[in-house]
Amino acid sequence: MSTEEKSLNFIEQIIEEDLKNGLSQDKLRFRFPPEPNGYLHIGHASSIALNFGLGIDYQAPVNLRFDDTNPAKEEQEFVDAIKRDVEWLGYQWAEERYASDYFQQLYDWAVEFIKNDKAYVDSQTSEEMATQKGTPTTPGTDSPYRNRSVEENLDLFERMKNGEFAEGTHILRAKIDMKSTNMLMRDPIIYRIIHKHHHRTGEKWCIYPMYDWAHGESDYLEQISHSFCTLEFLPHRELYDWFLDQVVDKNLVRPKQREFARRNLSHTVVSKRKLLQLVNEKHVNGWDDPRMSTISGLRRRGYTPASIRNFANTTGIAKRENLIDVSVLEFCIREDLNKTAPRVMAVLDPVKVVITNFPEEKEEWLEAENNQEDENAGFRKVPLSREIFIEREDFMEDAPAKFFRLTLGKEVRLKNAYIIKGESVVKDDEGNITEIHVTYDTDSLSGSGTEASQRKVSGTLHWVSIQHAIEAEIRLYDRLFTDEAPDSHKEKDFLEFVNPDSLKVITGYLEPSLATAQNEDKFQFQRLGYFTVDKDSTAEKLVFNRTVGLKDAWEEKGKKEENIINASLKDINKYFKVEIEERAVIENAIGENIKSVTNFSLLQNSLKKNINNNKSSLLFANWLLKYSDTIKFSDVEEETLQKLYNMSLKSESSFVRFETIQNLKKDFSNFENFKTQLLDLKTSEKNEEVQKLLSEF
């Protein structure tokens, strides 16, 4: 690998160091080892890119190995989906392997462990084992079965394999150290009984190896040189090495486990358990729902392999976990599709426009550029007729000065067509605009070179001819969760953050060139965003998924809410300096602002940030609890609330004390804790309003 081409990440530095220390280049071998108990997600994509990328850079083989050691959760469907996803991302594995390929060898080694007094059959209940294992701060105690004879252990283990015992009655444990500071080293389980059909071995086995036992030994059997995994496996490295110590041949390559940080993506979850819950509880429509963080879901939504690979390369490899904003992923797909996606016209919220001086029977086919970013993309023909659709938001009857779209008496250009001028509107009985009447300048055809065509107008609109338009189902997908880290709040169920507006289904009207669009074809709907054809699409009914908008609407919303918080904090300073009438106006305005903020994490952080000795900050923190519909008392950590109440009751400001007492009246779980403090305050309080409130207790 050339170090001149790019700086090395810490994973590559480990490999380079091993090569310098004598590891032969031809001994390098990597693997991607998914468990076939769910679909791959964006976190796996980063791991795939890492391992297969190393294979490409070092010209070393990379195995795809399925760690299929738990038949209770694994299915062939997941195996097939994983293979499909890896191939779609553009990678090829050297060998397809399975942990189940090694079941016999793993069993034989386990028998040797027993013979060498390094393993024993334990017959405790799971509850008894948990007690006997101790805690991180207290050592464990030996199992009462730890000193079973080799003969008894061999007999029981053989009978476990033969299916003579029920699940949970016996396990095989490694005999290591019950006093180890690493809990994983306290006689870990090697085998457990599972009476389930295995997708490859059928009913042959009634015992199955634990992940920690099978994983490292599978690496060794495949002669994997470097086993890269995420940080949660760092405590497992000691056990990984202990297991290898028992079986390794010094003449063979010994695998080395090293850890890197998981990439967490905002506004989503990547826990397989939680993804499965979303599927099973019908919050989404299957593993490949375009709102899911699964590779299948991203593919169906319209993401490309190149965009996901670019995302993995952009975010890089780190030693510390961090939250990557989903806008980074969205940027990667915009950047890719901007180069490759044909531009077309579609109207999603239509209002009818009648070009009154365009002959009724006439249709004119105009030339439109397919992609200005790609000079080889060519041109297509789009039809213009007397009646067209434009977006409803592109017209205002009484428009402000800075409205640069269609209004009465002003001109705009129709994309690839003519300049039109708003003349009049037709309304229904309720006053809703049903038609907009315009005239067009016959000499102003775009690109014609006439003087009229070069006239500058306030804006350009996309449109479709009503006569030629294709109706299509448009699925407007948005982020699945409203919070950036939905599963990080201890007091909240992550499902409480499911975005109720994550999918809206509407009817759109498309230009006729899209009639032959096929599954996964991608387009830019001009001025609207990038869209891809869904697999539900048929020749009779096209279905499009919105992949991503042209702009990051969430970033704009986030900045707006941050600005609301900051502006409210500034305004609150005035509250202490004005008369009672003005104070009421300020409080009402700030209260309305707080209600408009829906970002849970922003509110949580704002609350914690403002628990300090500043009276304005304390008043704002209390108002957050008073006015927010998003954050409730039960959502805030007990320690945080108690700190807020303590500081607020001692505040120099009677306004702060008053609001705190009001909040305590509603926060029943904390009221009793502060009853003594409130009674003490009752004897010393000088403010009449606060004293009146205290008299209620």
From TrEMBL:
Name of the protein: Glutamine--tRNA ligase
InterPro entries for the chain: aa-tRNA-synth_I_CS, Gln-tRNA-synth, Gln/Glu-tRNA_Ligase, Gln_tRNA_ligase_bac, Glu/Gln-tRNA-synth, Glu/Gln-tRNA-synth_Ib_cat-dom, Glu/Gln-tRNA-synth_Ib_codon-bd, Rbsml_bL25/Gln-tRNA_synth_N
Record family assignment: Belongs to the class-I aminoacyl-tRNA synthetase family.
Quaternary structure and partners: Monomer.
Enzyme class: ligase
Keyword tRNA processing: no
PANTHER family: GLUTAMATE--TRNA LIGASE (PTHR43097:SF5), GLUTAMINE-TRNA LIGASE (PTHR43097)
Region Disordered: start-end pairs: 124-147
Domain Glutamyl/glutaminyl-tRNA synthetase class Ib anti-codon binding: 341-441
Residues bound to L-glutamine: 67, 211
